[in-house]
Each structure stands twice: as C-alpha cells, then as structure tokens.
Design a protein that fits this description.
Length: 398
C-alpha cells in the first residue's frame, strides 16, 4: 500500500480532477464518491473550494490551503471492497495520519499532530479504465473546524508512515515489501539478459531490457559516456545502484558481471568443482525434499524443493480456503527455484536455500539456516500473492 500527500494552492483544479469534472484526463477512469466531512450534501467542486477559501480568510499568510492525498492499496487486497470498506480505509488512514508527531533525529519536536479528522474533506474512488486498479483521492482543508492549521511539514512522510502502519495492521504488503520483491524480479531480468548475451555490448544490454518492457533512462557525462541508468516499468523505478548484489549491475561493473556469467572453460571446471561442495542441487533428490512440477510462461520444470518450504506454501495457500491455491503454489515454487539460482550466482553462504551440495547431503543444517530457508519461502509466497493475488471462496483473504 502506498500513500502520497502534498499541500497545494490550486485547489479548484484538484477538486475538478478527483470528482471527474476535469476534461483533461489522458486516461478516463470510473469515479465514485465515497464520503465527505463537514460539507453539505451534494455540494459541487466549486462550492467546496469557495467554502475552504472563505475559512482561509482568517489566515491570510497561509499560502497552500488544501492537502491533496492519494492512497493506492494493492488490487488483490481490495478486490471485493464495498463503498463502506473504502470509507473505513480512509478513516483508518486519517487516524494513523493524525496521531503522528514529527521529530528530528535528536527528538526535538518539529510538527504537532494534525487534525484531518476534524477538517473539511471530500474522498473519491478512482478505477483505472483498462486495469481497474483502484486508488483513493482526497482533498482536505488545511484549516480544521477549530480554526487551527494542519501543519504540512514533511507531510509526505506522514502519509507514507500512515500507509505502512495500516498495511502492517491488516497483514497487507507494505510499499517497502513490494519494492523489494519487484527489485529482486528486476535484478533477475537483468541477469537473464546478461546470461543470454553471446558477447558483451552495453547497447545490446539496454535493447534487450527494452524488449522485456522496461523503459531505460541513460545518464551520460559531458563526453557522452554512459555513467548510469534507471529502469522504469509502470510506476516503479529502479536505479542501477540498487539492483543485483554489491551493485554488480551498475554500468562500471556490468561487463565484469557478464564475464562471470560467461566464464572460460577452465573457469567453469574450477567453479563447478568448488560449488559442488557449497551449493544445493535442486534437480536431484536429497533427503527431506519433495519433487514438485510447476510451469512458467509455457515451460514445465521439475525440482526437488525442501519439505519445510513446501509446508510453508501449503499453510499459506490452504486449499480449504483459497480457490486458486494451485496457481499460487505453482508461482511460489517458481519464485523459490529462480531465487535460489539467483542467490547461488551471488555467492551466498551455504544452506541459505536449504540442503547441501553433493558432498553435503548428510550434514545437518543449523537452526539459523533453517529459519532463513523458511523466511525465504514466505517471501516467495508473498511474491506469488503480488503476482496473481489470493481469492477465497468467501471474500478476500486478508
């Protein structure tokens, strides 16, 4: 779940936009009114704007008299929401927003609590015309009904923290979780592109990423030499410095990463000999593993996945409760298998993914290794939920 907030002066434009009056929207949306606070019923955007401006006359030095807020939960979490559910989500957000006091790193108070709950506001639900992805838009008066100003210092941080708290309380994925899952997926795509390149070429690398649906933004110096790049897909953006491991997908390290994926014959022999002692082989049977067959993009795979990992997936996607449990387990197994291959490339410690190599099959795993294996299984389950969602026989699993 993601939330944004900003104090604005162009209030009538924002009101026209969220209520659907504006005719300048590039992508038309379905728009529904959710609720109002301290406003007469049926009032139009101009009426709301005039009401707020009239209240603001007593505070002539207040430049921005409205707060614009957008709340974007994941679609799978709100698939069966009613208008009352959306209203409750807004009220929960306001509660978390208002309870915060902003302090500096030394604990000194920077901003008192706000009072959005006691201020004029109007809230509307937007559904994107193509995807149907929902998000709430709200406009709130900076002046509450007691004549006090809602402080807008670090208002974007208030919104982010409120969204994080709601997501944790409801068991939803937070913005940080989603970004991290997406970051790992983007990193795997980058490594996949490098692995399929027969020879090193930065231009070819960028071109192949674009065929995967990424918008590549390249940063060059005065001499036209590429110094960095950003990958964008949908609303998500990722700098090269946050991808991969040890910044190994930055421009300065890309060729070296490509060479590691394309070692010489002697390097391959040496690497295989070394990795056989530290890396588990999921293509062959090992004790306490289960053979699992799964599909991805039309391809079928067979892997021996640790039994405790499969128990996590079985618990997360109980077939008694979840209609599409088979699809979710299929997706989770794929994420686990790919993640383990990815982590092996990054030279992670022994047993991170469970089990040992050919010479370690009989060695007992440490408690920390088991806990890490279970934690990774849960992250793969979360990735599966993010990909295709959970559908219960009765409502949404929360």
């Amino acid at each position: 779940m993601i939330a944004k907030a900003k104090s604005i002066s162009h209030g009538i434009n924002a009101l026209n936009y969220i209520t659907g009056v504006s005719a300048n929207k590039k992508h038309p949306e379905k728009i529904y009114h959710i609720c109002d606070s301290f406003l007469p019923p049926g009032i139009d955007p101009l009426g709301i704007w005039n009401s707020v401006r009239l209240d603001s006359l007593c505070r002539p030095r207040m430049k921005n008299n409205l707060i614009r807020i957008e709340i974007s939960p994941a679609a799978e979490h709100t698939r069966n929401f009613t208008p009352e559910d959306w209203k409750q989500l807004w009220q929960d957000f306001v509660t978390e927003f208002d309870c915060q006091e902003m302090k500096d790193k030394n604990g000194h108070l920077l901003s008192l609590k706000t009072n959005l709950a006691g201020s004029k506001s109007t809230v509307w639900l937007h559904l994107e015309s193509d995807s149907g992805i929902p998000h709430l838009h709200a406009v709130v008066s900076r002046l509450d009904e007691n004549g006090n100003i809602n402080n807008d210092r670090n208002i974007h941080l208030r919104a982010q923290r409120a969204a994080e708290r709601i997501a944790r309380k409801r068991g939803w994925q937070t913005a940080v979780n989603i970004h991290d899952i997406n970051r790992q997926s983007v990193s795997r795509d980058c490594l996949d592109v490098l692995g399929k390149m027969g020879k090193w070429s930065l231009e070819d690398y960028f071109a192949r990423l674009e065929t995967k649906g990424y918008d590549v933004k390249v940063r060059t110096d005065e001499g036209g030499i590429v110094r960095g790049y950003v990958l964008k897909k949908g609303n998500a953006k990722f700098k090269a410095s946050e991808l991969g491991k040890g910044r190994n997908l930055m421009v300065s390290k890309l060729e070296g990463t490509w060479k590691k994926l394309h070692p010489t014959q002697s390097q391959q022999t040496k690497a295989k000999s070394k990795e056989s002692d530290i890396r588990p082989d999921y293509t062959t049977y090992r004790p306490d593993t289960r053979r699992v067959e799964f599909e991805h993009e039309g391809e079928s795979y067979s892997r021996f996945i640790p039994e405790q990992v499969m128990r996590v997936f079985d618990d997360e996607f109980d077939y008694h409760e979840v209609e599409n449990w088979a699809d979710l387990i299929n997706e989770a197994c794929y994420h686990f298998a790919v993640a383990m291959s990815f982590m092996s490339f990054l030279n992670t410690p022994t047993y991170v993914s469970g089990g040992g190599g050919a010479s370690n099959n009989d060695l007992p795993k440490k408690r920390d290794d088991i806990e890490e294996e279970i934690a990774r299984a849960r992250r793969c389950a979360a990735a599966a939920c993010s990909k295709i969602g959970i559908v219960r026989r009765k409502g949404i699993r929360r």
